[in-house]
Write a structure and sequence with these properties.
Radius of gyration: 29 Å
Number of strands: 7
């Protein structure tokens, strides 16, 4: 077994992260990472510190002699794939880039964060949270994911946000197979104010099947002015772009 492989196993046997190990012997996490990738090797002083920390001889540490009871080969075979990178540059103590990927819970936190569980201004992961968030489950100001929750724009299979677009969309302005909101547009559109779709239920409803105080058949042409008047009569403060979206005028 090569030195870098043995170091990975010994570190994990002791339950240390790369950063923890670096703190123990006075080097940075990036230095430990380079050792474990085989890009560099420690000098004699650090080898002595490592051998003391792991309670093995230097010969055992560098692979010239077996580690006795320390079954590092078994450790290596069982070790799941994990890749981690943190940029040395930070902003208020937070790495500009943190990538943490692998089997299991791999958390990434940075201005740009990519990981199984990611938190950052821009975050990408299975579970992600940030200003712009992309993931299977995502939350943020703008969120894209299978399940997306956002303060502003959400796009996903299930989306919840001020503006929501998805198979199931819930929010203020929604677009989806099932759209539920204040203003909704979709296959089945349910809204408190205006709804348009195959089935529409709202105060102003435009649909193949419409249910509301003001009902319009979506298949009938030339109703734009009437729909516009109905929206402005019921909700005079409706934004012009929303009036145009639903009425076509």
């Amino acid at each position: 077994m090569e030195f870098n492989e043995r170091l990975i196993c010994l570190r994990k046997q002791k339950g240390l992260s790369q950063e923890n190990l670096g703190d123990e012997i006075g080097v940075t996490r990036q230095t430990v990472s380079k050792w474990e990738l085989g890009e560099t090797t420690p000098d004699m002083d650090k080898l002595i510190q490592l051998s003391d920390l792991f309670e093995i001889s230097i010969d055992e540490l560098v692979g010239k002699k077996d580690c006795g009871s320390k079954d590092t080969s078994l450790c290596l075979r069982q070790r799941p794939f994990v890749y981690e990178y943190k940029s040395e540059k930070t902003f208020k103590g937070i790495p500009l880039v943190h990538v943490h990927l692998g089997i299991g819970l791999c958390r990434a936190k940075g201005i740009i964060a990519i990981g199984n569980c990611a938190t950052g201004v821009l975050s990408i992961g299975i579970i992600s949270a940030g200003v712009l968030s992309i993931g299977v489950v995502s939350a943020g100001l703008i969120a894209l994911g299978t399940i997306a929750t956002a303060l502003l724009i959400a796009l996903g299979g299930i989306s919840i946000g001020t503006f929501a677009l998805g198979g199931i969309a819930v929010g203020v302005v929604t677009f989806g197979g099932l759209a539920i909101g204040v203003y909704s547009y979709g296959g089945c559109a349910i809204a408190s104010h205006v709804a348009k779709g195959g089935y529409a239920s709202a105060t102003v409803a435009i649909g193949d099947e419409a249910n509301g105080d003001y009902c319009f058949d979506i298949n009938v042409k030339g109703q734009g002015e009437a729909i516009k008047n109905a929206i402005l009569t019921a909700f005079p403060k409706t934004a012009k772009w929303l009036v145009k979206l639903f009425s076509g005028r």
